[in-house]
Amino acid sequence: MQRRDIPLRRHSPEDVLRAARVWIGTPYHHQASTCGVGTDCLGLVRGVFRTLYGFEAELPPAYSRDWAEAGRQETMRAAANRHLISKQIENLAVGDVILFRIKSHSVAKHAGIAASPTSMVHAMDGMPVSEVHLSRWWRRRIAAVFSFPGTEQ
Questions:
Q1: Cβ-based neighbours of 62, under 8 Å, separated by 6 or more
Q2: Residue 67 — pLDDT band, cuts 50, 70, 90?
Q3: pLDDT at position 61, please?
Q4: Angle formed by the axes of helices 41-53 and 13-21, to 10°?
Q5: What is the pLDDT of residue 2?
Q6: Among 36, 52, 68, 99, fewest CB within 10 Å belongs to which?
Q7: How many CB atoms lie within 10 A of CB 129?
Q8: Mean pLDDT over each residue of the chain, to the nearest integer
Q9: Is the distance from CB of 4 to CB of 102 less than 8 angstroms?
């Protein structure tokens, strides 16, 4: 369900980053989105959205760990297009949602939130939510960048 018709509060990119950093240390748990208890990368973005706007943008259907390989559809990117504001990759800024293609020629299936031009907050299997360097490895895999509604400069 698209929620762009609901008036959304304005937030600064720093508000987004503060909301994301609260999740640091949350254990990885596939399909979860509960701060301090468990989350995956999508759950982190969903949780920050809930913090900012007070509602869930969209409940995702159940998904397997290999959902992208099985379906070959840009499911995560399509959902981001429904609820976030698409922007040019070269305009990446603090508080933006970054989608990644882990394997070349595959669909985008990982997400993080930019903490600075050179770092991001993300959840990854086997480790808790962390703020990590946005290294060349990660940068080469950026598929799309989005801002949260109301944070556009």
A1: 31
A2: low
A3: 78
A4: 120
A5: 40
A6: 36
A7: 28
A8: 90
A9: no
CA 115 to chain centre: 12
pLDDT digit string, tens, across residues 19-63? 999 999 999 999 999 999 999 999 999 999 999 999 998 888 777
CA neighbor of 114 nearest in space, from 85, 147, 86, 87? 147
Instruction: Find all residues with CB under 8 Å of 140, minimum gap 6, and list them.
Output: none
Q: Which CATH superfamily is domain 13-147 in?
A: endopeptidase domain like (from Nostoc punctiforme) (3.90.1720.10)
66 — pLDDT class (breaks 50, 70, 90): low
pTM: 0.90
Q: Beta strands 85-87 and 38-39: pairing type?
A: unpaired
**What are the structural domain ranges in the chain?**
13-147
DSSP for the chain, please give it.
Answer: ---TTS------HHHHHHHHHTTTTPPB-TT-EETTTEE-HHHHHHHHHHHHHSS-S-PPPP--TTHHHHH-S-HHHHHHHHHSEEE-GGG--TT-EEEE-SSTTS---EEEEEEETTEEEEEETTEEEEEEE--HHHHTTEEEEEE-TT---
